[in-house]
Amino acid sequence: MARWSPGEVAVVLGAGASRGAEFIEEPPDDGTPPLCLPPLNADFFTQLQRITTGRHQATVDAVLKDVLELHGTNFSLTLEEYFTQIEAMLLTARLSQKAAEGFSTRDLMKRRTNLLEALSAVLEESADVAKSRSLARRHPCSYHAALVDALAQRDTIISFNYDCIVDHALRTASDGKWSAKHGYGFPKPGRVAGHEAWNSPDWVDRQNSSINLLKLHGSINWYPFPNTDDGIIRLRERPYKQRGQKLYEIIPPEFVKSIANRPIFPQLWSKAELALRRASVLCFVGFSFTPTDLHVEALFRLALAANKNLKRLVVANPSPDHRRRIRSVCSGALRNGAHVVQFETLREFAPHMRDLLTGGA
C-alpha cells in the first residue's frame, strides 16, 4: 500500500466554524436558525438549556441537576471544565475507600454518561445533517461547500469538531475529491464499514486520492473503535438514531486527554503533524488555542517549528486575541516571511477561499 502523503494545504476547523455555518448566519426565507446553536466550549450549558425537543428533556434535566448539585444556581462553567472535574473526581473515587453519598464511582460514571448524552443532544438539535427536516440538511452550508470545493485531493482538514457539517459538505460538494473509506485517515481502509453513506457520489477507491479529514477528537458518526488491529471500524449513517445509551468514538473535552491509550487516535494525530509540517498554506477557521489544551498546542508548536515551507497563513476568527495567539503558536513557521491574511468570520472568508487556499501560494 502506498504511504500516506498529504497535500500542500492544511485547514484547521474549530467550534467557531460550525457556529458560523450559513444556516446559522444566513438562514433561508423559509426557516429560522435553531434556538440551540452549535456549542462553543464557553456557552455549552447555555445552548443545552435552549433545547426544546421533548425527547431530550430528561437528558437536559439530568445534567442540570448534576451541575447544580456541585456548583449551585449561579454557576459559570465551561464544558471542558466540567468534564475535567468529573474525570478528576472519578480518579479520586476509585482510590477512595469510602465515597460520599452520591459520589461513588457508579454515581460519577452516571454523571459522565449524562454529560455525553447532553453533548449528543445539543449537536443533534443544532447541527444534524442526517434528518431531512433539519435546517442543516435542508439548507447546507455553502461556506463549508466552498471550502471543500477550493481544496485539492490530498489536502488536509484537521477538525476538532464532533459534528458532521464538514463531512456532509465533503460528500455533497467535493466533486469526487472525497472518500470516507480513505479520507478519514484510518489505518487499513479496507476495514472501514458503512463508508458508502458518507462517500461522495463519484468517490475514488484509492489511497492518496481523497481530501483528508482528520477529526482529532473523534466524531459523532463513528462507532466506538475496535480494541484490536484487525477489528472493523464502523461509520454510522444516522449519527443520532440510537436506542439506549449513545455510543460514539470521541475524546471528551478534558484538560488531560488519553489520546495514547485509545485505538487509532495516535495515528490520526501523527498524520496531522505531518500535514502541518509540510503545509505551504495553513488556514484556521473558528479555532482558538486554549491554555488548558496542552496536547493540541504541543502538536502545532512542534509541527510548525519544523515547517520550512509555509507561504501563507489564513485566519478567520472574530477575536483579535485568538488571532494573535494563533500567530504566536505559528511563529516558527512564519519566520521565513509567510504572508498573513485575516478575516473575522467564515462568511467573510468564503468568497476568497479559491484564491487563498492554493498549494504553493
CATH class membership of the largest domain: Alpha Beta
Summed up, the domain count is 2
Second rung of CATH, namely the architecture of the largest domain = 3-Layer(aba) Sandwich
* Rg computed from alpha carbons, rounded to a whole number of angstroms: 20 Å
- Residue windows where pLDDT falls under 50 for at least 5 positions: none
Spatial gap, N to C terminus: 30 Å
Strand element count: 10
Helix/sheet category: alpha/beta
Percent strand equals 5-15%
**Please, what is the average pLDDT?**
91
CATH topology tier name of the largest domain: Rossmann fold
Helix content: 25-40%
Describe this structure in words.
The chain has 361 residues and is an alpha/beta fold. It is built from 16 helices and ten strands. The protein folds into two domains: 9-21 and 141-356, 3-Layer(aba) Sandwich (Rossmann fold); 44-127, no CATH class. It is 40% helix and 10% strand. The strands form three sheets. Strands 4-2-1-8-9-10 form a six-stranded parallel sheet. A two-stranded parallel ribbon has the order 3-6. Helix 11 runs parallel beside helix 12 (294-305). The longest helix has 23 residues, at 105-127.
Keywords:
10% strand; two-stranded parallel ribbon; alpha/beta; Rossmann fold; 361 residues; 16 helices; 40% helix; 10 strands; 6-stranded parallel beta sheet
Task: Summarize the SSE layout with pairings.
Elements: E1 9-13, H1 15-19, H2 22-25, H3 44-48, H4 57-71, H5 79-95, H6 105-127, H7 135-138, H8 142-150, E2 156-159, H9 165-173, H10 180-183, E3 192-193, E4 212-215, E5 218-219, E6 233-234, E7 249-250, H11 265-278, E8 281-285, H12 294-305, E9 312-316, H13 320-329, H14 331-334, E10 339-343, H15 346-349, H16 353-356
Helix pairs in contact: 4-6, 5-6, 8-9, 11-12
